[in-house]
Automatic annotation (TrEMBL):
SUPFAM superfamilies: LEA14-like. This is LEA type 2 family protein. Keywords: Signal. Residues 52-144 form the Late embryogenesis abundant protein LEA-2 subgroup domain. It holds the Pfam family LEA_2. The keyword Signal applies. Residues 1-20 form the signal peptide. It comes from Luteimonas soli. It comes from the Bacteria.
Length: 160
């Protein structure tokens, strides 16, 4: 009989612990977001249309507000990508915003050279993203990203 009661007490204590653990709700983890160039399209007038991929690594939705990122192509300054994204991105998800950009003349030449030679080109982004995590105040995150773009076959003037 004693054995029966101790087993019941053990099961009741385990159930109480499990219920207490479940009642706390999901963990609210806010992680640093990231940004990368998903696609760069060179227009006939030399300006660029930049599809910027914004990644939310947090466990809660985040509203992306302001973007200010210095762009370099290889060793050439290309100017600053700026804009107001104005989008909310769900937990552990990504979305794309399109920004118009008037690059520096050396950046235009570097892109034209890469496209003309059907070669890739490295790029870097450095600056800030201003985001508002759900239920919290605005925060600015420093962004540093280095990657590369390659010409897209069949799409003249487009790099991914």
């Amino acid at each position: 009989m004693r054995r029966h009661w101790s087993s019941l007490l053990f099961l009741a204590a385990t159930a109480a612990l499990l219920l207490a653990a479940c009642s706390s709700g999901p963990v609210r983890r806010v992680s640093e977001p990231s940004a990368s160039i998903q696609q760069l399209t060179v227009r006939a007038d030399g300006s660029w249309s930049v599809d910027l991929r914004l990644q939310n690594y947090s466990s809660i939705p985040m509203r992306f507000e302001a973007i200010s990122l210095e762009v370099k192509l290889g060793e050439h300054e290309a100017g600053t990508l700026q804009g107001n994204a104005g989008i909310s991105i769900g937990p552990e998800s990504a979305d794309v915003v399109t920004l118009e950009h008037a690059p520096t003349s050396v950046a235009r030449i570097a892109i034209a050279d890469a496209l003309g030679g059907n070669r890739g080109i490295g790029y870097s982004l450095e600056g800030t993203l201003r985001v508002v995590p759900e239920g919290s105040g605005a925060r600015s995150y420093d962004i540093k990203r280095t990657s590369g773009l390659n010409p897209v076959p069949g799409l003249p003037g487009v790099l991914r």
